[in-house]
């Protein structure tokens, strides 16, 4: 059983930065495609970005492209989400997710992910 635990959430002013980390245990981290999603109050879960198994490929939602960066440290079983130039509309609960299927290099659809972290709250004040 894979467990994912995020850290690094909090309150930040608009224009500021935060770095979220997601630590995995109980599986083979290097074999997982790792994604980040967010959900704001009253809204559906939204794809943020994804990184491939070897870290060579990333893909981001248009709403965060150029501001957010995903990286991974397989030696530490950890994936990071660096968030810069934060906006109030980035306020949400952010969750990392692991996809174990070998059929994909990158995964956008939430239904393909097998394991999810509970997600820290990120609040951006104006």
Describe this structure in words.
With 126 residues, this protein is mainly beta. 0% of the residues lie in helices and 48% in strands. The protein contains no helices and eleven strands. The chain has strands spanning 3-7, 10-13, 18-25, 33-39, 46-51, 58-60, 68-73, 78-83, 92-99, 115-116, 121-125. The strands form two sheets. Strands 2, 4, 5, 6, 9, 10 and 11 form a seven-stranded mixed β-sheet that branches. It has a four-stranded antiparallel β-sheet with strand order 1-3-8-7, with no helix packed on it.
Q: How do the helices and strands line up, and which of them pair or pack?
A:
Elements: E1 3-7, E2 10-13, E3 18-25, E4 33-39, E5 46-51, E6 58-60, E7 68-73, E8 78-83, E9 92-99, E10 115-116, E11 121-125
Parallel strand pairs: 2-11
Antiparallel strand pairs: 1-3, 3-8, 4-5, 4-9, 5-6, 7-8, 9-10, 9-11
């Amino acid at each position: 059983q894979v467990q994912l635990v995020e850290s690094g959430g909090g309150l930040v002013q608009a224009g500021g930065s935060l770095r979220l980390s997601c630590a995995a245990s109980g599986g083979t981290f290097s074999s997982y495609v790792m994604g980040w999603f967010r959900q704001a109050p009253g809204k559906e879960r939204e794809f943020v970005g994804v990184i491939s198994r070897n870290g060579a490929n990333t893909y981001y939602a248009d709403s965060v492209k150029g501001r957010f960066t995903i990286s991974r440290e397989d030696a530490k079983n950890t994936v990071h989400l660096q968030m810069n130039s934060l906006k109030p509309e980035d306020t949400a609960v952010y969750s990392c997710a692991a996809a174990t299927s070998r059929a994909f290099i990158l995964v956008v659809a939430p239904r393909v992910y097998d394991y999810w972290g509970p997600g820290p709250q990120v609040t951006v004040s104006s």
